[in-house]
Every structure is written in structure tokens, then in C-alpha cells.
Amino acid sequence: MKSIFKIVYIVFCIVFTFVSLCSCNAKTGFNENAVKISVAVPQSPSSYPLMYMIKNNSMQDFAVETQLIPYSSNDELNQMAVSNQVHFMIAPITEAIKIYNKGVNVRLLGVTLWGAPYVISSDKFLNDIQDLRDKEIAVSKEGCLPDLILRHILIGNGLNPDINLKITYMNEADISNKLSAGEILYSVSDVNDSASILTYTNYYYFRKDGFDIKKRLSLEEYWYKLTGKPGKKIPIEALIAVGDTIENEEMVMEFLNKFREGTKWINSNTSEMKHIAIEYFPEYEEQEIFESLEYANLKFVSPKESKKDIEEFFNELLKTTSIDIINAKLPDDNFYYK
């Protein structure tokens, strides 16, 4: 009798385990082929929604892990895309288009970061772009969007950037040191470098009386005046799908929904976000993270909604910039994920 009960018990356990496994697979779907989702990221606010997603295990139905793979140069980003090292990437909009125009299998999933940079300065009398005439201005990355936008606006306001003023290229650390020491008075950088500069010069350097380094001129406002389109958005960075990832529509849509959710949460919880971001960018100070969020216009906009903004932006910028920045042409409709 005992042996019969023992057999029944064993059968019950086997059936229960089988049902549980089936239930688990039905719920998690993609976990039966457990993968890691890899995302190439710069040190930028566009990466912050991904940190929120990881913290909340947002992609658990599709992957055992979502991992961030930092890159420090556009060449490194290009290599990741060409060799399919990642599923997704956060990229400067110029690089995303350039990679696509090379024939690499990538798609735009949405624009993540918007807006033109500021002129950061200790000059309290700087009130107009014309005040930069005959001045020296430090720029952190030659040929990147902040540099190209600055040059475009200068030209549009009758200033030749190679004649009427001096643009000097230097890294973010040198800009911070020279601004703090008063060796240079003006700078333009991307969101991340600007946050570092403002943090260093205003929080970790002895500030002299009346020596206040801050955002003085919004180049975005001058862009509006130049184009005659107030409020027209300037795309800076984008979320991109790479290679075969594009074919997995269910995963891509879930990723987009969670990324959008993360973006909304961050914009409402900047103080909490800086504690999360510091885990992934430990070399940063919390104040830098906070400055970057204050400085950035972090907003996720779909391909359909951002396509016109992207095309209008480049049609304007290419009036003063070589089309080589996007590898000879604007992308066709296939670039935009549907």
C-alpha cells in the first residue's frame, strides 16, 4: 500500500513540475532561448532610460540580462554596428545616418535627445551672438553637432567662424581648467561635456567674487531666429536597432515601450535618477548627472513623428556643412522603423 502511495506521489510531483515549467514558458516566451540584450551607449542622458530598465528588469520576458556596452568614439560605435556586436545602440543622429548610408543593417527606433547647446561663459556682458566677434571660444569636439551648429549660427549672423573669431578645439578637462582660471571666457560643448564643465567650475573650484560661469546664450534660440521656425526641434541622439534585432518585432516593441516609460520616469524623478546613473558612470559626480539632466531635453519621439524634424534640420545645417557628415545623402524611408 505504501509503495502505491509512493508511486502516486512521484507521478504527482512530475506532473506538477511539468505544468509549472509550461506555465513559466508561456509567461516568459523568449526566456526559453535565453539571451543577453546588449546596448552600445555613450556617456549621455540618452543612456539613462536604459539604466532604469535594467534596474527594473524591464526586459525579463525576452532576455536573462540587459547589458550596457560603453563606447568612447564614433569609430568604436561604427565597428559595433558593422560586426553586429550589439542589439541596440544610442548614437549621435549624424553617425546613425552615416552608418545606415554605408549599407549597414540598422534602423532608427526614435530620437532620444533634442536641442542645441549653450555658450558657457564667465562674461556677464555676453548678451548676443555678435558679442563673440574677435573673441576666442573653446569647443570640445571638432566636427560634432555642437561645433557644426555653432558655425552655422555664426555664419547666419554674419560672422565668419574662421575670420571674425577664433575657435579653439580642446578636451573637456582643459576647457574646465581654462574657464576656471580665466584663460578663456567662452565655450561650447555637447550636453555631457557641458555638465562636467559646469560642475567642475561651479562646485569644485574656488570661485572668485563676481566670477560666475554659467549658460549665457542659447544657440537653440538663434537657430529658431535663423530658420524662422520657433520651437522647431533639433535632433541630437537616437535609439537604433542593429542587424537581425530588427526582425524580432515583439522584442523591439517591448524595448521601445520600456524605453519610453523610462524616459518619462526620469523626467519626473531627476534626483533619484542621479543615484542610479552613478552606478553605471562611477567616474562622474552626482552633480554632473544632475547638471546633464537639467541641461538636456530628454524626450523619446517615434520615427514617424521625428522624420520631418530630422530632414528639416539637416536641410538647414547642410547649407553650411559638408554632406559628408551623413555620408553623402539623407536616409531613405527604410531607415525609419515602422
TrEMBL record:
InterPro entries (UniProt xref): UCP027386_ABC_sbc_TM0202 (IPR027024)
PANTHER family membership: ABC TRANSPORTER, SUBSTRATE-BINDING LIPOPROTEIN, ALIPHATIC SULFONATES-BINDING PROTEIN-RELATED
Name this protein carries in UniProt: NMT1/THI5 like protein
Organism: Oxobacter pfennigii
